[in-house]
Design goal:
Number of helices: 9
Strand content: over 45%
Distance between the termini: 173 Å
Largest sheet: 30 strands, mixed
Number of strands: 32
Helix content: 10-25%
Shape: elongated
Length: 639
């Protein structure tokens, strides 16, 4: 009996030893890298043959029970292009629960990974091709949750490419059809995937694109729901820009929507106050390399590219310039089809800021002296229409007066616009604008304009309107009508004044294009009370009624060339009247010498030679006093 017990105990010990030893041997066997690599290579070779592409692993080591190391992993697509390669992947395993479909990794390190998403000439991306291969058709009807999470992913010196084989290459700017990122480093934390939702946080991500654009630091939380992408609390630091994005969403109805990005993908962007520099923008927008300007920008952008809306857009530039506006764009990216509405709540600038703008190839913007004198300029209103025909409506306020506009602008050719509409000015300080404050004061007017402009210095237009008031020589004239054609240096038309102290009609041409201005006009003045108009400071009875015709050129009395006539005119001084029915002064050249011809109702004169009106005027006056002492006098008192 005892012998049988001993024998049974012996067998039990042997069986127990085998039970204990076999797993131990198997554990030690599987613990070896060579065995693990052999098994994985058999599996990858099988899959490679199945998909007719390449999946390979240099070596693999799994350290029971929580660490996996893979070297030289390579996955190629059906065209034998690299989809994913990594020199080394190290992953800490926290939990693998196949029953509950829950998988959790600790820290994962990617050493020099290479990722290339390539779209072939047929329009199929290699990643999509792989996902379609591994997708289980039954997954669409199965119920249950698939949980996959990673505590932290360290990305070290990665490279990423996004290539579209059928797209043409762009030069000097970022080409999203041939995107190549190098020096890709960063940390991803709290990576979670539950069914069709993936979320993770990005920290200290940096890279450089082949065009030269670089991101020094990027942090954000990211949520991917089906085909939708959402970034929250994003911070991006570039070479010269700092961008703060409260929310950035790309919302689509299906994954195929990305093939028609401008029409199908909806943007939802909330941009907090960010510093934008043109040196970074030039990689996205064709700016000149010589521009280096910074501005602050914030606001909301909603909708698709083709139907884009902006709300609470705020922009500030340098010390004073700022813009607060809303916009609606329809028809992008084709500029020729673009219909736009820009509602400007506030636009402010001044000549100092404008003069700091650098034009590529031309240097700094040249600001006209008239703009400098305006001081601080502000505008509120709207721009509505197409780029080829739009209307601007609003009010321009300056230190020297205000202008309201309801004007359409239509480009006709390069650098030339058709301008048509209503301009209303109030309290414009034309004296300060022209530098003649002693003679000119404020101007208020309402005019219709129809013409063309190439710049502030080159324009031509028909003008019809009314000057409500204008101050000249400390007197305010009212009820002035205008109708004519004007350019930056000419006026050809009529001006009519119906005022209680003067009635005036001016018809003709004033031309300041040449060195010596030219005048060809008829001036009819009725009962102009010179004392009330502040042209005569002493005599309250002083008045003028005259009909003047002129056709001459010159800028002072000594270089006049032409003729001036007075017809049926009356000059009243100290209650005495001087009537001139036919008075003319004519200057011309005869035998290369200047000639002055004077014809009056009282005396005719002819002077040939060189003369000076500053002395000639005194001579004529003294002669008239001697000839007609009852009509003329010397000195300030009537004799």
């Amino acid at each position: 009996m005892l012998k049988n017990i001993k024998k049974s105990l012996k067998y039990f010990i042997i069986v127990l030893g085998v039970i204990i030893l076999l797993p131990t041997v198997l554990y030690l066997f599987l613990q070896t890298s060579a065995v693990q690599t052999f098994l994985v290579k058999r599996i990858t070779n099988h899959f490679s043959n199945e998909i007719k592409s390449t999946i390979s692993v240099g070596s693999i080591e799994y350290r029971f029970f929580n660490k996996l190391s893979i070297n030289d992993i390579l996955i190629k697509d059906k065209h034998n292009d690299t989809l994913i390669y990594s020199r080394e992947i190290i992953a800490g395993i926290k939990r693998f629960d196949f029953k509950n479909k829950s998988f959790r990794l600790g820290r994962v390190s990617l050493i020099k990974p290479v990722i290339a998403f390539i779209t072939d000439s047929a329009g199929v991306m290699n990643l999509t091709w792989y996902l379609d291969l591994i997708k289980n058709p039954a997954d669409t009807i199965k119920k249950g949750s698939n949980r996959f999470s990673i505590e932290q992913i360290d990305i070290n010196d990665a490279r990423f490419s996004l290539i579209n084989r059928s797209a043409l290459r762009r030069k000097n700017m970022i080409d999203f059809n041939h995107l190549n990122l190098t020096g890709f480093n960063g940390i991803i934390e709290d990576f979670k995937s539950l069914n069709d939702t993936t979320s993770f946080n990005i920290y200290n991500l940096g890279f450089k694109e082949s065009s030269g654009f670089s991101v020094k630091k990027m942090s954000s939380s990211v949520i991917l729901v089906r085909q939708n992408i959402l970034l929250n609390s994003a911070f991006i630091s570039c070479d010269s820009s700092i961008i703060n994005i409260s929310r950035l969403g790309l919302v689509t109805d299906s994954s195929s929507s990305f093939k028609k990005f401008t029409e199908k993908v909806k943007l939802d962007i909330v941009l907090d106050k960010s510093l934008i520099n043109t040196s970074d923008l030039r990689f996205f927008i064709p700016f000149g390399d010589s521009i280096n300007e910074s501005l602050w920008l914030s606001g909301k952008i909603l909708g698709t590219i083709s139907e884009l809306r902006g709300r609470n857009i705020k922009l500030s530039y340098r010390n004073f310039t700022s813009l607060d506006c809303d916009f609606d764009f329809s028809g992008l990216p084709k500029i020729e089809n673009l219909y736009l509405y820009i509602g400007v709540n506030s636009l402010k600038t001044n000549a100092r800021d404008l003069g700091q703008i650098k034009i590529p190839g031309k240097g700094f913007l040249i600001v006209p002296e008239a703009i400098k004198k305006l001081g601080n300029i502000s505008f509120n209103g709207s721009f509505t229409g197409f780029t080829t025909d739009f209307v601007t409506y609003g009010e321009i306020r300056t230190d020297l007066g205000n202008i309201s506009t309801d004007v359409s602008l239509r480009p006709q050719e390069a650098d030339r616009y058709r301008i048509k509409g209503l301009l209303t000015g109030s309290n414009i300080k034309i004296g300060e604008l022209t530098g003649k404050t002693e003679f000119l004061g404020n101007l208020s007017m309402k005019t219709n304009v129809d013409g063309y402009a190439s710049s502030l210095k080159k324009f031509a237009a028909n003008l019809t309107g009314k000057i409500d008031s204008i101050e000249i020589n400390k007197y305010v004239y009212r009820n002035i009508s205008m109708n004519g054609v004007f350019t930056e240096k000419t006026w050809d038309g009529s001006i009519n004044i119906v005022d209680r102290n003067i009635k005036l009609d001016l018809l003709g041409l004033l031309n300041f294009k040449n060195k010596l201005p030219e005048f060809d006009f008829t001036l009819n003045i009725t009962d102009a009370k010179l004392y009330n108009l502040n042209f005569d400071k002493i005599d309250t009875t002083s008045a003028v009624t005259m009909l003047l015709t002129s056709n001459f050129k010159g800028n002072n009395i000594d270089n006049l060339d032409g003729e001036i006539k007075l017809l049926n005119s009356n000059f009243r001084k100290y209650s005495n009247n001087l009537e001139l029915y036919d008075f003319s002064i004519r200057t011309y050249k005869e035998d290369s010498k200047p000639v002055l011809s004077l014809r009056t109702d009282f005396v005719d004169a002819y002077i040939k030679g060189y003369y000076n009106f500053s002395t000639l005027g005194g001579l004529i006056k003294s002669t008239l006093v001697k000839l007609m002492p009852s009509q003329f006098h010397l000195g300030g008192k009537h004799s």
